[in-house]
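Hi R.,

Here's the chain you asked about this morning:
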Amino acid sequence: DSITAERNDLQHKHTALKEQSAAWKERESDLVKEIKDLKEKLLKASERLEATQAQHVEEVDSTAADLQQKLDEKEAKLKENDEKYKKLKKRQKEFEIKSKNQDELLQRKEAETEELQKLRKEMGALQDASSKLQESE
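And the predicted structure, written out as tokens:
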């Protein structure tokens, strides 16, 4: 019973990890798109910088610096998400192994229980035979 409960708990955790993993993947995809968009914006800002008169150079530099900072933050976030995703995949694999081990333990326990029942049945038959022998003597 405790093995089955633990197995159910592991399956629940495994499902939750899968859902969390999918959410991280989706967020990672969004971050990649945002980074691409930010890179495009940064490129456009750099092009505007070259075409702008001297009085606008400081303003464009500020915009480019802001975009670069955001890009750096998004890339850092993406790297962080990659690390978390790798850890989640590792934990998911560990839970799968644990679940498989629990299944094997449960199967062994069931086989041992069947064997024990057979032995008890044989023991009962031997006791009956022994009683009959004692009665006949």
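Helices lie at 2-51, 57-136.

Let me know if you need anything else.
M.
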